[in-house]
Structures are given as C-alpha cells and as structure tokens.
Design brief:
Helix content: over 70%
Order of helices and strands: HHH
Distance between the termini: 54 Å
Structural class: mainly alpha
Number of strands: 0
Low-confidence stretches: none
Number of helices: 3
Strand content: under 5%
Shape: flat
Largest sheet: none
Radius of gyration: 20 Å
C-alpha cells in the first residue's frame, strides 16, 4: 500500500471514529458536560504543542532574517503566555 492510500485510510478512520464519538457524547448530555472540560483542555494542549514544537524553532531560525535576535523571540513568547494567563484569569473571574 502506498503512502497516499495509507493517508486516505487513516484519515477516513479518524473521521469515522470522531463522528461515532461525537454521536455517543451527544446522546448522553450528562457525560458530555463532565467530559467537555477535559476535551477542551486536550484540544488547547494540542494546539500549544504544535506551536512550540513546530513554529517556535522556525521562529528562532528566521529571527535573524528579520533583524531580531533569539532573545526577542523568547521575550515575545513570555509576554504572550503571561498575557493569555491574565486574560484567562479575568474571564474566569467574570464567570464566577
């Protein structure tokens, strides 16, 4: 089996399993309410890991081309993380 067909097969399997899981969770709203926090945290962690493992090394490589240093990249990362933490704390205090 070629790589193309493997990608097609596993994409279809992922889509089918995701649809089945969504239907099962929608059929049981009590379970959906309990799991939604954990599923949202998993999705956010996945997006952050993609950013750190894929985009951040590229930012270090391309920083010199734009006239920035690696320290500027780390400073921007720190300001972004602290800013998101503050915004999240602000909105979670509004929900209480």
């Amino acid at each position: 089996m070629t790589l193309f067909w493997q990608v097609i097969l596993f994409s279809l399997m992922g889509g089918i399993f995701s649809t089945i899981g969504g239907i099962v969770l929608l059929a049981r709203p009590d379970k959906l309410r309990k799991l939604s926090f954990w599923l949202l945290a998993f999705a956010a962690g996945t997006l952050l890991s993609v950013a750190f493992f894929d985009l951040l090394p590229e930012a270090f490589v391309n920083a010199d081309d734009g006239g920035y240093s690696s320290l500027n990249v780390l400073q921007a990362l720190f300001v972004g993380l602290v800013g998101l933490f503050v915004i999240e704390g602000f909105f979670s205090s509004l929900m209480l």
